[in-house]
Every structure is written in C-alpha cells, then in structure tokens.
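Researcher: Quick test of sequence recovery. Tokens follow.
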C-alpha cells in the first residue's frame, strides 16, 4: 500500500506582486532582471552625450528616464557619497530657482541636471563588474575617437558645432579627458591588437587638441601627460610611448599652433583679457549673493550689472549674456558657497577613495581584476584632473564630464570595497596553519 506524500508547507503569499520584491520560490523574475538592456542603454547614452550628434530626437532623455526607472526597481541599489552629494547639489539648484533673476534659465538648467541624475546615480548599480567597467571605458574612448577624427577635418569643431557645445575648446577638453582612459587601459589589456588601437586613439586625441588651437586644451593635455608618466608602473614604456606620440603630433602641429601655445602666459590680449574681466565681474556678483548665489544658469544674465565704467570703456561693449568661461567662477556665482562646498566635497571624496583603490591595487591578492581596478582608478583620477584643469577656462559645471567621471569613480570604489570584504571574510573562515580541528569537523570528513 503506497503512502500519500506529505504536503510541503508553503510560505503565505505576500500582499504585493512577487515581481516587486523578487522573493519566494515561485517569484516572477524582477523587472530589473528583465531589463538586461540597462547597461547597453547606458553606453548608447554616453555616445549621445559625448558624441553630441546634431539631431538627438530626445533619445538621451528617454534613455535617462529608462535608466532611472530600472534602477528604482532594483533591490540591490548602491548608494554612496555620490548619490547624497549629487542630490544635495541638485537641492541647492532647486532652492536657487525662485531667487534667480531669469527663472526660465534656472528652470531649464535644473531640468538638465535632473535628467543627468537619472544616469549618474544609477551608474554604480549598473557597472558592477570589471568586465562592464572595461567595456564602458572602451566605449568612451571610441566615442572620443569619433569626435577627435571629426574635429581634425572640421577645424577643431565636433559634430554639433559651437551651438551644440562642441567648439574647439570643449572638444579639447574631451580629448584631454580621454587620454588617460586609453593610456591606463593599455595596462589592463593582454591583446596586442587592442593595445595598438589604444595607442592610436591617444595619437588621435593629441592631434585633435593640436587642430583645435585651444591653449586651455594644451594645458590640460600637458597636466594629464605628467600624471600618466608619474603614475605609470613602467616608466620607460610610458616615456617612450609619449615621446612617439609627441613626435607624431609635431608632424600635424603647424607654426601657427606653436605660436598660439607661446601666448599662453600673455593674459593682457584677446580672449584672455576678456575672461579676466568677466571673472572680476563674477566675483563682484558672488559678493552680492555669497551663500546661495544668483541661481543656476544665471551668470550670463547678471554679469552685465556688475560691469564697471572702466571695464565698459576697456572692452568697448556691454558683456551681458556672456558665459563665465570658468567652471569655478560659474559655480560660485550661480550656487554660492553652499554649492561650491558640496561640489568640492564630492570631488575630493571621489579623489581620495580612488587613491585608496590605487594603493590597494599595488599588492593584489593574486587576481588580475584587482590590479585592473587600480589602473582604472588612475584613469578616472587623471580624467578628473583634465576636466578640472580645463574647467579653469571653460564653463563645464553643467556638462556631464565631471559628473560621469565621479559616478564611474564611485562604481570602482564600491567594486573594490566589495572585493575586499570578500577577501576579509575568506581569511576569517580559513583555519590557521597548525590549528586544531574540532571533533565535529573530523567526523564530517
């Protein structure tokens, strides 16, 4: 006579759909797992944001919203200093809207940063492996190569031109940001073909900077080159490669470009003098609203009010409507000390966290991915340096450059911390040599 099988007790069904939590044996796969396209969508967004085609059809905004919704439905969100710092920065912008003279400009500037939030905050939860980090870095390099080649044949301008935020100075800033991404990726690659392509990419970036005739781009490229050589673990290889790249760039460098570089220290003529005058007006505007500033995106709408009679005679025209031409002046004037402190904390914390990853990658626990994280930490730090140096002469505050780099830096730090926690747990669970084994363990053996 056969016995009836004993029914297996089941847990009571939750009061909400299983796909919301993803828990339980019979749970339906969660939406974030179905949305396995989040990472490819992120790559497409990067191509639009940094490649800047003339026509976008609002595709970047749709992708940003999709990334934000997919991240909101994930159960394993990775929140760090970046998330809270960026939200605080965004909060200062929102507070500044009713204080702004031009509320329309303040609203649209804040609107862009809100759209950027849907990409920047989810990024560390999407880039969760060294493999994805490698693909993302290569994608950024590929986009920069496209822009660089375009600029070499279009007078230093990118696909969108000056009205799309791709004049010669902004193209040079992108080239400087991309040089260390390609350089430190060389140390993470074992394939000779990929290494060769990365070296050629560096040659394109340097050549596009030369074609741009951007003096600020030259300063940024020089700072990045020094960083790469100083941080290179193979100094001879680094020096040799940069000597070869420099020789190649000099072939494209014209006499006019070399003369332009020589005028870097001449700040009393041309655009250099105009920028100094704009910065002086901006500092007077900041002194009038020191804590919260004049509102996001409002530098150009208030700067004319602080132009002195002497400056009007010197320049020969009113400068109302002019941009700050400096990330730091724009930051102080638009968002005041509060916004500047939050921005400084975000950048400094990312910089120090990546430094910790660098030091940890020097003595790896026997895994190549651990070493790769150290190289990519160097790449992001050098790229941040390029943006911050170019930011001395460009209004880069509301561009994605620094924010995407900070987000990638946060992803690297969180991957490193997760690996280190796993290593510590493994050490704690491994018995010491010569330790006595309990009778229960001997029985199981």
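Model:
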């Amino acid at each position: 006579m056969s016995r009836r099988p004993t029914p297996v007790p089941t847990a009571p069904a939750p009061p909400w759909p299983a796909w919301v939590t993803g828990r339980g044996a019979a749970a339906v796969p969660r939406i974030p797992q179905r949305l396995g396209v989040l990472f490819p969508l992120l790559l497409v967004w990067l191509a639009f944001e940094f490649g800047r085609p003339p026509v976008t059809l609002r595709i970047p905004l749709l992708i940003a919203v999709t990334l934000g919704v997919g991240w909101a439905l994930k159960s394993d969100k990775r929140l760090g200093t970046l998330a809270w710092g960026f939200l605080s920065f965004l909060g200062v912008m929102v507070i500044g809207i009713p204080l702004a003279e031009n509320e329309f400009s303040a609203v649209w500037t804040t609107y862009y940063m809100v759209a950027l939030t849907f990409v920047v905050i989810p990024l560390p939860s999407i880039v969760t492996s060294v493999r994805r980090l490698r693909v993302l870095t290569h994608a950024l390099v590929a986009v920069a190569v496209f822009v660089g080649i375009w600029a070499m044949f279009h007078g230093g301008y990118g696909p969108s031109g000056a009205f799309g935020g791709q004049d010669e100075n902004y193209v040079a800033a992108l080239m400087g940001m991309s040089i260390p991404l390609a350089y430190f990726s060389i140390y993470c690659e074992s394939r000779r073909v990929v290494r060769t392509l990365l070296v050629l990419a560096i040659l394109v970036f340097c050549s596009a900077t030369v074609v741009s005739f951007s003096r600020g781009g030259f300063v940024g490229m020089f700072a990045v080159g020094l960083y790469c050589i100083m941080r290179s673990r193979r100094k001879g290889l680094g020096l040799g490669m940069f000597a070869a790249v420099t020789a190649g760039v000099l072939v494209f460098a014209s006499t006019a470009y070399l003369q332009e570089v020589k005028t870097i220290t001449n700040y009393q003529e041309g655009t250099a003098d105009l920028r100094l005058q704009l910065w002086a007006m901006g500092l007077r505007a900041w002194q009038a609203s020191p804590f919260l500033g004049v509102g996001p995106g409002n530098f150009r709408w208030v700067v004319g009010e602080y132009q002195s009679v002497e400056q009007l005679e010197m320049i020969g025209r009113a400068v109302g409507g002019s941009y700050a031409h400096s990330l730091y002046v724009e930051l102080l004037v638009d968002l005041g000390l509060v916004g500047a402190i939050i921005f400084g904390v975000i950048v400094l914390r990312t910089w120090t966290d990546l430094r910790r990853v660098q030091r940890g990658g020097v003595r790896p626990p026997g895994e190549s991915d651990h070493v790769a994280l150290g190289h990519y930490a160097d790449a992001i730090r050098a790229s941040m340096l390029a943006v911050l140096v170019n930011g001395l002469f460009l209004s880069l505050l509301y561009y994605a450059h620094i924010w995407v780099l900070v987000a990638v830096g946060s992803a690297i730090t969180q991957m490193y911390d997760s690996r280190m926690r796993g290593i510590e747990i493994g050490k704690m669970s491994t018995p010491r040599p010569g330790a006595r084994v309990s009778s229960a363990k001997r029985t199981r053996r």
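Residues 137 and 403 are 15 Å apart (CA to CA).
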